[in-house]
Each structure stands twice: as structure tokens, then as C-alpha cells.
Design goal:
five-stranded mixed beta sheet, about 35% helix, about 450 residues, 13 helices, binds adenosine-5'-triphosphate, Rossmann fold, about 30% strand, alpha+beta, seven-stranded mixed beta sheet, single chain
């Protein structure tokens, strides 16, 4: 029963995202391209709010973090050294009958095709990196890859940061950007895609301090899930067992979320030892060691890596916020988004669109708030009830209405709360601080 409801939830959410301009299927008019999605105006607004909250928490509010934006295309030797060329693969099986391909580790029955019940072939390793050629030549020396994670761009710039900023340990590098994985089976809307976006940190520490730094980031990951307004009971930690961790990791915690299609990985937190700096030192022949002024010792720092998916955050936020209820006697659908991430914080309406004095005052208030907050819209289409429904559906927390009392009695505007539907009067001069107090 529960599952049925959740299946509907995904369908309803995907259809809302398309209808209201959050997320569209990639290349839709040509029949789509599996594993790609395009963000529309509201989707990109939500995405930027999430990224800004992350950048604020992990970069702007700290003194020990260096922001980066490295190139997506890198020298192929980067991915040889990191182990991606030889080992960034998933087990692929093909059905002998219908020829469909599946990720073997995601199948309940490893022998039978989940679609046609035909016999499955042997699993083989399938490398998930997108390969391309740089320049006019197509020989092996021209090979490059679209990065499968942003991390590589930070390790190869480690020495640049040392030389430009002379940081002390511990310090981190942080980056938000696209990554590409040729997933065997993209699925679950924006959960598993082929073109994704990550927010990652490589935090460099003295080897004997990794545990305390790991704990610190563990708490910070939880704090970030609160920043974006996720229901805390839906977030879970999974200590990844010895045999299941990536070869370079000595400890990994997956942060999982109760998505409508099940409990799945949202973020990862890994202790990567000195694996990366060591591999890149050996392969590039450039010394990536660190000289510690305090102990007068030279060594390779160890790394704590929190890794966040932008799309998975969006999906967690949207599926958590999707709500159907009855307000008054009218059924409605709304997104219970935190005002900190909502694409629009407030919509401003004149009560009636054919009364110029109401429209003029509403536009004046809209102009002021827009200048200050950006995420404000003006709407005078249809009756007020319809406008409320429209704003509810995109998760706008507040609707501000200019009515006759606003003009005649100087009592301010009405501000309607999305979740309760209740209205209160607020003085125009206090609107800005009211909205600020919610973000
Ligand atoms: P999974 O086991 O789900 O394939 P992973 O363990 O390979 O994920 P990591 O390599 O740890 O993922 O990547 C870090 C983060 O990047 C993940 O926690 C997730 O948020 C995001 N991510 C990874 N792969 C995808 C994808 N194909 N689509 C969307 N987000 C992804």
C-alpha cells in the first residue's frame, strides 16, 4: 500500500516539475536522451539556493577553505593515476534473449532477465567514464575523459594552493561542478543520471588527526541537511563495511535518504588516507608533500572527503516537500519548501487587477522587495484563490496582497502563510524584516 502511494508520489512530482517549470526531460522534442535532465527557471533557482547554502556553510563561513573551479577535461594521466581508467566500473550483464543491459549488483536474481525472464550472460566490468579526443588527432595520446567526479581537479591543484596561499593544516579545497558517468541504468528521475553535479571537499589533515576531522565533517553534513530543510528522521547514516569500501578508503559513511522509491545514498563521507596525493606524486613526478612549520616535518597530508550530489539534494528536498492536503474544503497540492531554498520567497498581488490604484501600490511593493530579495514575483492573473493555488504548487511560502484597506486605512498588506493558509496584516515598512527573519 505504502509503495503504491510512493510510486504515485514520484509520478505526481515528475509531472509537477515539468508542468511548473522545475525540470524537463533532456532533448525532449527529439524523444529524450536517457540519463539527462534540463533545469527550467524554478529548478535552476532551487538548485542555486541549495548550492549557495552549501558554499556559505563550507566556504564563506570558514577560514580554512579554498574555493575552486577546475576544468572538466583533464590530462588522461590524472585518471590513470587516480585508478579511474582501470577501475571506475560497474558490473554489466546482458540478457541473451532481449539484449537489454543491467547493472548486475542491482538485480535481485543474477541469472534471470527482470524484463523478459530470459537467461543473463556473464557479468563484465564496464568503465563508466565518457571518453573523448582532444584536438584533430584521434590517436591514444589525444584521449581525454569527462571527469567522473570533481575531486581530481582539486588534487592536481593542491600544490598551486600551497604556493599561492601557504595554508597551514588542516585546510580544504571545495568545488561545485558537473561530473559525468556513463551509468548502465540511469533511473529514478534525477537520482541516477549520466550528467550530474557535485559539491565536494578535499580536506587535508595531519595523518594522526583524521578521526577528529572525520567526526567534524560528519556533524557538518547533518547541519547541511538541516540548512536545506530535510526532515531529519528521513536521513540515515550507513557505516560502509570493510569489503564494500572503495580500495583507497579506510572509513566511509554513506548518508542515506528515504526517497519515495526506497532508502538510497544521498551523500558520502570518506577517509581517503594519502592515496590521492601519493598516486599523483608518483605519476606526475611532482612532489606533493607538505612541510609542516610546527613539527618541521615533511609528509603527505591525509584526506577527508565529503561528497554531495546536487541533483540528489534537489530530489530529496522536492520529494520531502511534496504534500497533498485539504485547505478549507479545497484539495490542494503544495511544496512545503523551506523559505531558504524556495525558488520564490514571496508573490505580490493586487486584490483586483482592474483597479489601477491597487495595481500601482502592489507594483511599488514588488519593486522594492525584488530589489532586495530577487526571489519575488508579481501576479495579477485570475482570482486570488487561483493565485494562491499556483504559488502553493511551486512552494512559495508567502503571498502578499494589496487590498482596499491597504490604501485607505494604512494598515499594511495581508500576508498569507502557505502551510496554514492563515493571513495576517503586516505594515509595508516591516515586510522586508519579516521576510528576512524567515531566510
Ligand atoms: P551510487 O552508489 O549511488 O552509484 P556512488 O557511491 O558511486 O553512488 P560517489 O562516487 O560517492 O557515489 O559520488 C558522490 C555523490 O555524487 C553521491 O553521494 C551522489 O550524491 C552523487 N552521485 C553519484 N553518482 C550519481 C549519479 N549517477 N547521478 C546523480 N548523482 C550521483
Amino acid at each position: 500500500m505504502e509503495n503504491k502511494k510512493d510510486e504515485n508520489l514520484m509520478e505526481n512530482l515528475i509531472s509537477l516539475c515539468k508542468r511548473r517549470g522545475f525540470i524537463y526531460q533532456g532533448s525532449e522534442i527529439y524523444g529524450g536522451l536517457a540519463g539527462t535532465w534540463d533545469y527550467g527557471p524554478l529548478g535552476v533557482a532551487l538548485k542555486k539556493n541549495i548550492e549557495n547554502l552549501w558554499w556559505k556553510r563550507f566556504v564563506l563561513d570558514r577560514e580554512d577553505m579554498y574555493g575552486m573551479d577546475a576544468a572538466i577535461l583533464m590530462n588522461q594521466n590524472v585518471w590513470k593515476a587516480s585508478g579511474h581508467v582501470s577501475g571506475f566500473s560497474d558490473p554489466l550483464v546482458e540478457c541473451k534473449k532481449c539484449k537489454k543491459r543491467f547493472r548486475a549488483d542491482q538485480l535481485e536474481d543474477q541469472k534471470k532477465c527482470p524484463e523478459c525472464k530470459g537467461e543473463l550472460g556473464e557479468a563484465r566490468q564496464f568503465n563508466m567514464m565518457f571518453k573523448t579526443h582532444i584536438g584533430a588527432m584521434e590517436d591514444d595520446s589525444a584521449i581525454s575523459y569527462l571527469r567522473p567526479e570533481t575531486a581530481g581537479g582539486m588534487f592536481v591543484n593542491f600544490k598551486n594552493i600551497l604556493d599561492s596561499f601557504h595554508p597551514r593544516l588542516p585546510f580544504g579545497m571545495a568545488q561545485i561542478g558537473k561530473a559525468f558517468r556513463n551509468e548502465i541504468a540511469p533511473r529514478d528521475f534525477i537520482f541516477r543520471v549520466r550528467e550530474l553535479e557535485q559539491m565536494e571537499i578535499e580536506y587535508f589533515v595531519k595523518p594522526d588527526t583524521w578521526k577528529e576531522n572525520f567526526e567534524n565533517f560528519r556533524k557538518q553534513v547533518w547541519e547541511f541537511t538541516k540548512d536545506v530543510g530535510l526532515t531529519q528522521e528521513k536521513v540515515h547514516e550507513l557505516e560502509v563495511a570493510d569489503g564494500d569500501r572503495a580500495h583507497y578508503s579506510k572509513r566511509t559513511i554513506d548518508f542515506e535518504f528515504d526517497f519515495p522509491f526506497g532508502r538510497k545514498e544521498l551523500y558520502g563521507l570518506a577517509y581517503r588516507t594519502d592515496f590521492d596525493l601519493k598516486s599523483h606524486t608518483e605519476a606526475s613526478k611532482v612532489d606533493l608533500s607538505f612541510f609542516d612549520e610546527e613539527s618541521k616535518q615533511r609528509f603527505l597530508p591525509h584526506v577527508i572527503e565529503p561528497s554531495f550530489g546536487v541533483g540528489r539534494t534537489l530530489l530529496a528536498v522536492l520529494s520531502d516537500a511534496y504534500t497533498e492536503d485539504v485547505l478549507g474544503d479545497e484539495p490542494r497540492t503544495y511544496l512545503k519548501l523551506s523559505p531558504r531554498v524556495a525558488p520564490v520567497i514571496a508573490a505580490v498581488f493586487p486584490l483586483l487587477k482592474n483597479k489601477p490604484e491597487l495595481v500601482a501600490k502592489a507594483r511599488e511593493i514588488f519593486g522594492e522587495l525584488k530589489k532586495e530579495f530577487g526571489r519575488i514575483i508579481f501576479d495579477d492573473n485570475g482570482n486570488i484563490g487561483k493565485r494562491y493555488r499556483r504559488q502553493d504548487e511551486i512552494g512559495t511560502p508567502f503571498c502578499i496582497t494589496v487590498d482596499f484597506e491597504t490604501l485607505e486605512k494604512d494598515v499594511g498588506v495581508t500576508v498569507r502563510d502557505r502551510d496554514t493558509g492563515k493571513q495576517e496584516r503586516i505594515k509595508i515598512s516591516e515586510l522586508s524584516s519579516f521576510l528576512k527573519s524567515h531566510i
